Amino acid sequence: MFLDYLELFRNGFKLFIPDAFLGFSLLLLLIVGVFIKTEENEALSLKNINWLSLEVLGLMILLMMNHPYYSGIILNGMIFINYFTLIIKIIIILSCGIVLLMGFQYYEYEKLNSFEFSILILLAALGMSLLASSYDFMMVYLAIELQSLSFYILASFKRDSQFSTEAGLKYFILGALSSGILLFGCSLIYGLTGSTNFESLNHLLMNSVFQFNELNTGISVAITFIIVALLFKLAAAPFHMWAPDVYEGAPTIVTAFFAIVPKIAVLTLLIQLLLESFYGLISQWQQLLIFSSMTSMILGAVGAIEQKKIKRFLAYSAIGHVGYLLIGLSCGTLEGLQSVIIYIIIYMIMSINVFCIILSLYKKTDSTRIIYINEFTGLSKENPLLAITFSVMVLSMAGIPPLAGFISKLQIFYSAIASSLILLAIIGVLTSVLGAVYYIRFVKIIYFENYNSFIYKELDLTKSIIISITFLSIIFFLFNPSYILILSHDLSLNLSL
User: Fold this and answer.
1) How many CB atoms within 10 Å of residue 313?
2) What's the total number of domains in the chain?
3) Are strands 72-74 and 79-81 parallel, antiparallel or unpaired?
4) What's the rounded mean pLDDT across residues 332-345?
5) Sequence-ordered list of residues with C-beta below 8 angstroms from that of 33, at least 6 positions apart, any chain
6) Residue 94: pLDDT over 90
7) At a CB cut-off of 8 Å and minimum separation 6, what does 31 contact?
8) How distant is the alpha carbon of residue 119 from its chain centre?
9) Is the pLDDT score of 328 beyond 70?
10) Helix 334-360 × helix 384-398 angle, to 10°
11) What domain range is 429 assigned to?
12) Mean of the per-residue pLDDT values of the chain
Protein backbone atom coordinates (compact mmCIF):
# COMPACT_ATOMS: atom_id res chain seq x y z
CA MET A 1 0.00 0.00 0.00
CA PHE A 2 2.79 2.41 0.91
CA LEU A 3 4.59 1.69 -2.36
CA ASP A 4 1.38 2.38 -4.29
CA TYR A 5 1.03 5.77 -2.61
CA LEU A 6 4.71 6.52 -3.23
CA GLU A 7 4.34 5.70 -6.93
CA LEU A 8 1.21 7.88 -7.11
CA PHE A 9 3.10 10.76 -5.47
CA ARG A 10 6.02 10.38 -7.90
CA ASN A 11 3.74 10.43 -10.93
CA GLY A 12 1.85 13.43 -9.54
CA PHE A 13 5.09 15.30 -8.94
CA LYS A 14 6.14 14.64 -12.53
CA LEU A 15 2.97 16.41 -13.66
CA PHE A 16 3.89 19.37 -11.45
CA ILE A 17 7.56 19.60 -12.55
CA PRO A 18 7.17 22.59 -14.97
CA ASP A 19 5.35 24.78 -12.42
CA ALA A 20 7.72 23.72 -9.62
CA PHE A 21 10.69 24.54 -11.86
CA LEU A 22 9.31 28.03 -12.57
CA GLY A 23 8.67 28.68 -8.88
CA PHE A 24 12.14 27.63 -7.71
CA SER A 25 13.82 29.44 -10.63
CA LEU A 26 12.19 32.79 -9.97
CA LEU A 27 13.17 32.59 -6.28
CA LEU A 28 16.75 31.84 -7.34
CA LEU A 29 16.71 34.74 -9.82
CA LEU A 30 15.46 37.06 -7.08
CA ILE A 31 18.41 36.08 -4.86
CA VAL A 32 20.86 36.48 -7.76
CA GLY A 33 19.43 39.90 -8.63
CA VAL A 34 19.77 41.16 -5.07
CA PHE A 35 23.42 40.12 -4.86
CA ILE A 36 24.57 41.40 -8.28
CA LYS A 37 22.69 44.69 -8.25
CA THR A 38 24.67 47.81 -7.46
CA GLU A 39 24.11 51.48 -8.24
CA GLU A 40 26.84 51.36 -10.89
CA ASN A 41 25.54 48.34 -12.83
CA GLU A 42 21.73 48.58 -12.50
CA ALA A 43 21.21 48.43 -16.24
CA LEU A 44 23.61 45.49 -16.59
CA SER A 45 21.95 43.51 -13.80
CA LEU A 46 18.53 44.17 -15.36
CA LYS A 47 19.73 42.88 -18.71
CA ASN A 48 21.26 39.77 -17.18
CA ILE A 49 18.14 38.94 -15.15
CA ASN A 50 15.94 39.52 -18.21
CA TRP A 51 17.93 37.05 -20.30
CA LEU A 52 17.97 34.53 -17.47
CA SER A 53 14.18 34.94 -17.11
CA LEU A 54 13.75 34.25 -20.82
CA GLU A 55 15.88 31.13 -20.48
CA VAL A 56 13.72 29.96 -17.55
CA LEU A 57 10.53 30.46 -19.59
CA GLY A 58 12.09 28.66 -22.56
CA LEU A 59 13.10 25.70 -20.40
CA MET A 60 9.61 25.56 -18.90
CA ILE A 61 8.11 25.36 -22.40
CA LEU A 62 10.50 22.51 -23.23
CA LEU A 63 9.52 20.70 -20.03
CA MET A 64 5.83 20.98 -20.92
CA MET A 65 6.38 19.93 -24.54
CA ASN A 66 8.32 16.83 -23.39
CA HIS A 67 5.95 15.97 -20.56
CA PRO A 68 5.96 12.25 -19.59
CA TYR A 69 2.23 12.41 -18.77
CA TYR A 70 -0.52 14.35 -20.55
CA SER A 71 -3.40 13.84 -18.13
CA GLY A 72 -3.80 13.60 -14.40
CA ILE A 73 -5.18 15.11 -11.20
CA ILE A 74 -2.61 16.01 -8.54
CA LEU A 75 -2.30 17.69 -5.13
CA ASN A 76 -5.42 15.98 -3.78
CA GLY A 77 -7.62 17.18 -6.65
CA MET A 78 -6.36 20.79 -6.63
CA ILE A 79 -4.76 20.74 -10.10
CA PHE A 80 -5.92 19.02 -13.27
CA ILE A 81 -3.54 18.73 -16.23
CA ASN A 82 -4.51 17.42 -19.66
CA TYR A 83 -3.81 18.24 -23.31
CA PHE A 84 -6.08 21.31 -23.22
CA THR A 85 -4.51 22.92 -20.14
CA LEU A 86 -1.01 21.97 -21.28
CA ILE A 87 -1.37 23.83 -24.60
CA ILE A 88 -2.94 26.84 -22.84
CA LYS A 89 -0.06 26.95 -20.35
CA ILE A 90 2.45 26.86 -23.22
CA ILE A 91 0.64 29.80 -24.87
CA ILE A 92 0.70 31.75 -21.58
CA ILE A 93 4.42 31.17 -20.97
CA LEU A 94 5.27 31.97 -24.60
CA SER A 95 3.31 35.23 -24.37
CA CYS A 96 5.14 36.23 -21.19
CA GLY A 97 8.47 35.59 -22.91
CA ILE A 98 7.46 37.74 -25.88
CA VAL A 99 6.47 40.58 -23.53
CA LEU A 100 9.89 40.41 -21.88
CA LEU A 101 11.56 40.58 -25.30
CA MET A 102 9.41 43.55 -26.30
CA GLY A 103 10.55 45.51 -23.26
CA PHE A 104 14.31 45.46 -23.77
CA GLN A 105 14.48 48.82 -25.56
CA TYR A 106 11.67 50.25 -23.43
CA TYR A 107 13.67 49.82 -20.21
CA GLU A 108 16.55 51.78 -21.69
CA TYR A 109 14.46 54.69 -22.99
CA GLU A 110 12.28 54.97 -19.88
CA LYS A 111 15.22 54.40 -17.50
CA LEU A 112 13.49 51.51 -15.72
CA ASN A 113 16.53 49.66 -14.38
CA SER A 114 14.84 47.58 -11.70
CA PHE A 115 15.50 43.89 -12.21
CA GLU A 116 12.34 43.09 -10.22
CA PHE A 117 10.26 43.68 -13.36
CA SER A 118 11.13 40.35 -14.92
CA ILE A 119 10.71 38.60 -11.53
CA LEU A 120 7.18 40.00 -11.30
CA ILE A 121 6.44 38.78 -14.83
CA LEU A 122 7.60 35.30 -13.80
CA LEU A 123 5.45 35.43 -10.66
CA ALA A 124 2.43 36.44 -12.74
CA ALA A 125 3.24 33.67 -15.23
CA LEU A 126 3.31 31.13 -12.39
CA GLY A 127 -0.03 32.38 -11.09
CA MET A 128 -1.64 32.24 -14.54
CA SER A 129 -0.18 28.79 -15.20
CA LEU A 130 -1.65 27.48 -11.94
CA LEU A 131 -4.95 29.24 -12.66
CA ALA A 132 -5.27 27.58 -16.07
CA SER A 133 -4.94 24.13 -14.50
CA SER A 134 -6.87 24.78 -11.26
CA TYR A 135 -9.44 22.14 -10.36
CA ASP A 136 -10.53 23.44 -6.99
CA PHE A 137 -11.78 26.84 -5.79
CA MET A 138 -9.06 26.99 -3.14
CA MET A 139 -6.39 26.76 -5.84
CA VAL A 140 -8.33 29.22 -8.01
CA TYR A 141 -8.28 31.86 -5.28
CA LEU A 142 -4.61 31.34 -4.45
CA ALA A 143 -3.60 31.48 -8.13
CA ILE A 144 -5.64 34.62 -8.77
CA GLU A 145 -4.15 36.36 -5.75
CA LEU A 146 -0.61 35.37 -6.80
CA GLN A 147 -1.05 36.88 -10.25
CA SER A 148 -3.06 39.88 -9.01
CA LEU A 149 -0.43 40.97 -6.48
CA SER A 150 2.13 40.97 -9.29
CA PHE A 151 -0.27 42.96 -11.50
CA TYR A 152 -0.78 45.65 -8.84
CA ILE A 153 2.96 46.22 -8.52
CA LEU A 154 3.51 46.15 -12.28
CA ALA A 155 0.78 48.77 -12.83
CA SER A 156 2.55 51.19 -10.45
CA PHE A 157 6.07 50.15 -11.45
CA LYS A 158 7.09 53.62 -12.67
CA ARG A 159 7.37 55.03 -9.19
CA ASP A 160 8.19 58.61 -10.24
CA SER A 161 5.03 58.85 -12.34
CA GLN A 162 1.84 60.12 -10.74
CA PHE A 163 -0.28 58.39 -13.43
CA SER A 164 1.38 55.02 -12.80
CA THR A 165 0.88 55.29 -9.04
CA GLU A 166 -2.76 56.23 -9.56
CA ALA A 167 -3.26 53.28 -11.94
CA GLY A 168 -1.77 50.84 -9.44
CA LEU A 169 -3.92 52.20 -6.60
CA LYS A 170 -7.14 52.00 -8.63
CA TYR A 171 -6.30 48.51 -9.81
CA PHE A 172 -5.51 47.41 -6.25
CA ILE A 173 -8.75 48.75 -4.73
CA LEU A 174 -11.06 47.39 -7.42
CA GLY A 175 -9.05 44.17 -7.70
CA ALA A 176 -9.41 43.60 -3.96
CA LEU A 177 -13.16 44.16 -4.31
CA SER A 178 -13.43 41.57 -7.10
CA SER A 179 -11.34 39.10 -5.09
CA GLY A 180 -13.71 39.55 -2.17
CA ILE A 181 -16.69 38.88 -4.43
CA LEU A 182 -14.98 35.74 -5.76
CA LEU A 183 -14.20 34.53 -2.24
CA PHE A 184 -17.80 35.14 -1.15
CA GLY A 185 -19.09 33.10 -4.10
CA CYS A 186 -16.67 30.26 -3.32
CA SER A 187 -17.67 30.27 0.35
CA LEU A 188 -21.34 30.02 -0.66
CA ILE A 189 -20.52 27.05 -2.89
CA TYR A 190 -18.73 25.31 -0.03
CA GLY A 191 -21.44 26.14 2.50
CA LEU A 192 -24.20 24.77 0.29
CA THR A 193 -22.47 21.71 -1.13
CA GLY A 194 -19.63 20.89 1.26
CA SER A 195 -17.14 20.75 -1.62
CA THR A 196 -14.90 23.09 -3.59
CA ASN A 197 -13.67 20.52 -6.13
CA PHE A 198 -14.82 21.02 -9.74
CA GLU A 199 -15.39 17.32 -10.41
CA SER A 200 -17.49 16.84 -7.26
CA LEU A 201 -19.58 19.88 -8.12
CA ASN A 202 -20.12 18.57 -11.63
CA HIS A 203 -21.45 15.24 -10.32
CA LEU A 204 -23.69 17.06 -7.86
CA LEU A 205 -25.17 19.57 -10.31
CA MET A 206 -25.80 16.94 -13.00
CA ASN A 207 -27.83 14.87 -10.52
CA SER A 208 -31.50 14.89 -11.57
CA VAL A 209 -32.62 15.06 -7.92
CA PHE A 210 -30.63 18.27 -7.39
CA GLN A 211 -32.29 20.04 -10.34
CA PHE A 212 -35.46 20.49 -8.25
CA ASN A 213 -33.75 21.05 -4.93
CA GLU A 214 -34.09 24.35 -3.07
CA LEU A 215 -30.28 24.56 -2.95
CA ASN A 216 -30.38 25.21 -6.70
CA THR A 217 -31.22 28.87 -6.07
CA GLY A 218 -28.34 29.32 -3.65
CA ILE A 219 -25.89 27.71 -6.08
CA SER A 220 -27.13 30.05 -8.84
CA VAL A 221 -26.44 33.08 -6.61
CA ALA A 222 -22.95 31.76 -5.83
CA ILE A 223 -22.22 31.18 -9.51
CA THR A 224 -23.31 34.74 -10.26
CA PHE A 225 -20.81 36.15 -7.75
CA ILE A 226 -18.00 34.00 -9.16
CA ILE A 227 -18.74 34.96 -12.77
CA VAL A 228 -18.95 38.67 -11.88
CA ALA A 229 -15.52 38.49 -10.22
CA LEU A 230 -13.99 36.76 -13.25
CA LEU A 231 -15.65 39.20 -15.67
CA PHE A 232 -13.95 41.98 -13.73
CA LYS A 233 -10.59 40.27 -14.31
CA LEU A 234 -11.46 40.16 -18.04
CA ALA A 235 -12.42 43.87 -18.06
CA ALA A 236 -15.83 42.95 -19.46
CA ALA A 237 -18.60 45.55 -19.17
CA PRO A 238 -20.22 46.60 -16.91
CA PHE A 239 -17.20 45.64 -14.77
CA HIS A 240 -14.69 47.42 -16.98
CA MET A 241 -14.32 50.69 -15.09
CA TRP A 242 -10.68 50.07 -14.15
CA ALA A 243 -9.36 49.20 -17.62
CA PRO A 244 -9.06 52.62 -19.37
CA ASP A 245 -7.36 54.30 -16.41
CA VAL A 246 -5.02 51.39 -15.68
CA TYR A 247 -4.11 50.92 -19.35
CA GLU A 248 -3.30 54.63 -19.65
CA GLY A 249 -1.45 55.09 -16.36
CA ALA A 250 0.62 51.91 -16.34
CA PRO A 251 3.95 51.78 -18.24
CA THR A 252 3.33 50.88 -21.87
CA ILE A 253 5.09 47.51 -21.61
CA VAL A 254 2.83 46.66 -18.65
CA THR A 255 -0.22 47.76 -20.65
CA ALA A 256 0.87 45.38 -23.39
CA PHE A 257 1.22 42.60 -20.82
CA PHE A 258 -2.28 43.27 -19.40
CA ALA A 259 -3.81 43.32 -22.88
CA ILE A 260 -2.16 40.12 -24.12
CA VAL A 261 -1.69 37.52 -21.38
CA PRO A 262 -4.14 37.54 -18.41
CA LYS A 263 -7.26 37.09 -20.55
CA ILE A 264 -6.05 33.66 -21.68
CA ALA A 265 -5.81 32.27 -18.13
CA VAL A 266 -9.12 33.74 -16.92
CA LEU A 267 -10.95 32.53 -20.04
CA THR A 268 -9.52 29.04 -19.51
CA LEU A 269 -10.88 29.03 -15.97
CA LEU A 270 -14.29 30.26 -17.15
CA ILE A 271 -14.38 27.56 -19.82
CA GLN A 272 -13.63 24.82 -17.30
CA LEU A 273 -16.13 26.16 -14.79
CA LEU A 274 -19.06 26.87 -17.09
CA LEU A 275 -18.70 24.11 -19.66
CA GLU A 276 -17.72 21.41 -17.17
CA SER A 277 -18.64 21.96 -13.51
CA PHE A 278 -21.64 24.29 -13.89
CA TYR A 279 -22.95 23.14 -17.25
CA GLY A 280 -26.07 21.75 -15.54
CA LEU A 281 -27.07 25.35 -14.67
CA ILE A 282 -26.52 26.83 -18.14
CA SER A 283 -29.92 28.52 -18.09
CA GLN A 284 -28.75 30.66 -15.14
CA TRP A 285 -25.24 31.71 -16.16
CA GLN A 286 -25.93 32.02 -19.90
CA GLN A 287 -28.14 35.09 -19.41
CA LEU A 288 -25.43 36.89 -17.43
CA LEU A 289 -22.83 36.20 -20.13
CA ILE A 290 -25.20 37.36 -22.89
CA PHE A 291 -25.85 40.64 -21.05
CA SER A 292 -22.14 41.22 -20.41
CA SER A 293 -21.30 40.38 -24.03
CA MET A 294 -23.84 42.85 -25.41
CA THR A 295 -22.75 45.58 -23.00
CA SER A 296 -19.06 45.03 -23.73
CA MET A 297 -19.47 45.14 -27.51
CA ILE A 298 -21.63 48.28 -27.46
CA LEU A 299 -19.58 50.15 -24.85
CA GLY A 300 -16.28 49.14 -26.45
CA ALA A 301 -17.39 50.35 -29.88
CA VAL A 302 -18.96 53.61 -28.67
CA GLY A 303 -16.24 54.43 -26.13
CA ALA A 304 -13.36 53.95 -28.58
CA ILE A 305 -14.72 56.43 -31.13
CA GLU A 306 -13.98 59.57 -29.12
CA GLN A 307 -10.60 58.48 -27.73
CA LYS A 308 -7.55 60.53 -28.67
CA LYS A 309 -4.92 58.69 -26.64
CA ILE A 310 -3.62 55.39 -28.00
CA LYS A 311 -3.66 53.39 -24.77
CA ARG A 312 -7.18 54.46 -23.78
CA PHE A 313 -8.30 53.58 -27.29
CA LEU A 314 -6.76 50.11 -26.97
CA ALA A 315 -8.45 49.68 -23.57
CA TYR A 316 -11.91 50.22 -25.07
CA SER A 317 -10.93 48.07 -28.04
CA ALA A 318 -10.00 45.27 -25.62
CA ILE A 319 -13.38 45.62 -23.87
CA GLY A 320 -15.12 45.18 -27.24
CA HIS A 321 -13.05 42.10 -28.09
CA VAL A 322 -13.91 40.54 -24.73
CA GLY A 323 -17.55 40.98 -25.72
CA TYR A 324 -16.98 38.89 -28.84
CA LEU A 325 -15.20 36.22 -26.81
CA LEU A 326 -18.17 36.02 -24.44
CA ILE A 327 -20.46 35.33 -27.42
CA GLY A 328 -18.71 32.04 -28.06
CA LEU A 329 -18.58 31.19 -24.35
CA SER A 330 -22.28 31.91 -23.82
CA CYS A 331 -23.21 29.39 -26.54
CA GLY A 332 -22.23 26.51 -24.28
CA THR A 333 -21.45 24.29 -27.28
CA LEU A 334 -18.41 22.64 -28.82
CA GLU A 335 -18.57 25.07 -31.76
CA GLY A 336 -18.70 28.02 -29.36
CA LEU A 337 -15.64 26.76 -27.46
CA GLN A 338 -13.73 26.25 -30.71
CA SER A 339 -14.57 29.79 -31.85
CA VAL A 340 -13.34 31.20 -28.50
CA ILE A 341 -10.00 29.40 -28.86
CA ILE A 342 -9.56 30.64 -32.43
CA TYR A 343 -10.45 34.20 -31.44
CA ILE A 344 -8.14 34.41 -28.43
CA ILE A 345 -5.14 33.04 -30.36
CA ILE A 346 -5.62 35.43 -33.28
CA TYR A 347 -6.36 38.36 -30.96
CA MET A 348 -3.20 37.60 -28.97
CA ILE A 349 -1.06 37.64 -32.12
CA MET A 350 -2.62 40.89 -33.34
CA SER A 351 -2.18 42.56 -29.94
CA ILE A 352 1.49 41.55 -29.78
CA ASN A 353 2.07 43.10 -33.20
CA VAL A 354 0.21 46.34 -32.42
CA PHE A 355 1.85 46.91 -29.03
CA CYS A 356 5.26 46.02 -30.43
CA ILE A 357 4.86 48.74 -33.07
CA ILE A 358 3.64 51.26 -30.48
CA LEU A 359 6.63 50.47 -28.25
CA SER A 360 8.91 51.03 -31.25
CA LEU A 361 7.72 54.54 -32.12
CA TYR A 362 9.98 56.98 -30.32
CA LYS A 363 10.58 60.48 -31.67
CA LYS A 364 14.17 60.98 -32.71
CA THR A 365 14.27 64.61 -31.57
CA ASP A 366 13.54 64.16 -27.86
CA SER A 367 13.30 60.34 -27.45
CA THR A 368 9.70 60.55 -26.21
CA ARG A 369 7.17 57.91 -27.13
CA ILE A 370 3.98 58.69 -29.01
CA ILE A 371 0.87 59.19 -26.86
CA TYR A 372 -1.86 60.45 -29.17
CA ILE A 373 -3.42 58.75 -32.17
CA ASN A 374 -2.73 61.70 -34.49
CA GLU A 375 1.01 61.23 -33.88
CA PHE A 376 0.93 58.36 -36.39
CA THR A 377 1.03 60.99 -39.12
CA GLY A 378 4.08 60.70 -41.32
CA LEU A 379 4.65 57.03 -40.50
CA SER A 380 3.93 56.06 -44.11
CA LYS A 381 6.81 58.32 -45.24
CA GLU A 382 9.24 57.50 -42.41
CA ASN A 383 8.75 53.73 -42.46
CA PRO A 384 6.42 52.48 -45.23
CA LEU A 385 6.84 48.81 -44.29
CA LEU A 386 5.90 49.45 -40.67
CA ALA A 387 2.94 51.55 -41.81
CA ILE A 388 1.64 48.69 -43.99
CA THR A 389 2.09 46.19 -41.15
CA PHE A 390 0.22 48.36 -38.65
CA SER A 391 -2.56 49.08 -41.15
CA VAL A 392 -3.07 45.39 -41.85
CA MET A 393 -3.21 44.64 -38.12
CA VAL A 394 -5.84 47.28 -37.29
CA LEU A 395 -7.92 46.21 -40.30
CA SER A 396 -7.68 42.63 -39.08
CA MET A 397 -8.82 43.76 -35.62
CA ALA A 398 -11.77 45.44 -37.29
CA GLY A 399 -12.70 42.15 -38.95
CA ILE A 400 -12.20 43.28 -42.53
CA PRO A 401 -12.34 40.24 -44.87
CA PRO A 402 -10.38 38.22 -45.74
CA LEU A 403 -7.94 38.91 -42.88
CA ALA A 404 -7.49 36.62 -39.85
CA GLY A 405 -9.63 38.84 -37.63
CA PHE A 406 -12.53 38.28 -40.02
CA ILE A 407 -12.10 34.50 -39.77
CA SER A 408 -12.23 34.62 -35.96
CA LYS A 409 -15.33 36.84 -35.88
CA LEU A 410 -17.01 34.70 -38.53
CA GLN A 411 -16.52 31.62 -36.35
CA ILE A 412 -17.94 33.48 -33.33
CA PHE A 413 -21.06 34.64 -35.20
CA TYR A 414 -21.56 31.22 -36.76
CA SER A 415 -21.53 29.53 -33.34
CA ALA A 416 -24.01 32.13 -32.00
CA ILE A 417 -26.42 31.53 -34.88
CA ALA A 418 -26.08 27.75 -34.48
CA SER A 419 -27.03 28.18 -30.79
CA SER A 420 -30.06 30.37 -31.71
CA LEU A 421 -28.48 33.50 -30.19
CA ILE A 422 -29.59 35.55 -33.19
CA LEU A 423 -29.88 38.90 -31.39
CA LEU A 424 -26.37 38.53 -29.98
CA ALA A 425 -24.97 37.80 -33.44
CA ILE A 426 -26.79 40.83 -34.93
CA ILE A 427 -25.42 43.15 -32.23
CA GLY A 428 -21.96 41.69 -32.85
CA VAL A 429 -22.15 42.40 -36.57
CA LEU A 430 -23.43 45.97 -36.01
CA THR A 431 -20.71 46.79 -33.45
CA SER A 432 -18.10 45.31 -35.81
CA VAL A 433 -19.26 47.73 -38.51
CA LEU A 434 -19.12 50.60 -36.01
CA GLY A 435 -15.70 49.44 -34.84
CA ALA A 436 -14.40 49.47 -38.41
CA VAL A 437 -14.89 53.24 -38.38
CA TYR A 438 -12.35 53.95 -35.65
CA TYR A 439 -9.92 51.28 -36.86
CA ILE A 440 -9.92 52.69 -40.39
CA ARG A 441 -9.21 56.10 -38.82
CA PHE A 442 -5.65 54.85 -38.17
CA VAL A 443 -5.18 54.14 -41.89
CA LYS A 444 -6.51 57.61 -42.72
CA ILE A 445 -4.11 59.29 -40.29
CA ILE A 446 -1.10 57.25 -41.44
CA TYR A 447 -1.59 57.75 -45.18
CA PHE A 448 -3.74 60.83 -45.75
CA GLU A 449 -2.82 63.38 -43.06
CA ASN A 450 0.41 65.34 -43.34
CA TYR A 451 0.51 67.59 -40.28
CA ASN A 452 2.80 67.01 -37.28
CA SER A 453 5.10 64.67 -39.16
CA PHE A 454 7.69 63.13 -36.82
CA ILE A 455 11.03 61.44 -37.40
CA TYR A 456 11.03 58.13 -35.56
CA LYS A 457 13.97 56.16 -34.22
CA GLU A 458 14.95 52.95 -35.94
CA LEU A 459 13.48 49.67 -34.73
CA ASP A 460 15.69 47.37 -32.71
CA LEU A 461 16.33 43.86 -33.98
CA THR A 462 14.20 42.09 -31.36
CA LYS A 463 11.03 44.04 -32.11
CA SER A 464 11.63 43.73 -35.84
CA ILE A 465 11.67 39.93 -35.55
CA ILE A 466 8.54 39.85 -33.36
CA ILE A 467 6.65 42.18 -35.72
CA SER A 468 7.70 40.11 -38.73
CA ILE A 469 6.69 36.77 -37.19
CA THR A 470 3.29 38.00 -35.98
CA PHE A 471 2.55 39.72 -39.30
CA LEU A 472 3.48 36.61 -41.28
CA SER A 473 1.33 34.51 -38.92
CA ILE A 474 -1.72 36.64 -39.67
CA ILE A 475 -1.01 36.42 -43.40
CA PHE A 476 -0.50 32.64 -43.08
CA PHE A 477 -3.93 32.25 -41.42
CA LEU A 478 -5.38 34.20 -44.32
CA PHE A 479 -4.20 31.69 -46.91
CA ASN A 480 -4.29 28.51 -44.82
CA PRO A 481 -6.55 28.68 -41.73
CA SER A 482 -6.77 24.90 -41.43
CA TYR A 483 -3.95 24.65 -38.86
CA ILE A 484 -5.61 26.88 -36.28
CA LEU A 485 -8.99 25.27 -37.00
CA ILE A 486 -7.57 21.79 -36.37
CA LEU A 487 -5.74 22.94 -33.20
CA SER A 488 -8.87 24.60 -31.79
CA HIS A 489 -10.96 21.53 -32.61
CA ASP A 490 -8.48 19.20 -30.86
CA LEU A 491 -8.39 21.46 -27.80
CA SER A 492 -12.19 21.58 -27.65
CA LEU A 493 -12.48 17.79 -27.81
CA ASN A 494 -9.80 17.35 -25.10
CA LEU A 495 -11.31 19.80 -22.61
CA SER A 496 -12.30 17.12 -20.11
CA LEU A 497 -10.05 14.17 -21.09
Assistant:
1) 24
2) 1
3) antiparallel
4) 90
5) 45, 49, 115, 116, 119
6) yes
7) none
8) 19
9) yes
10) 150
11) 2-493
12) 84
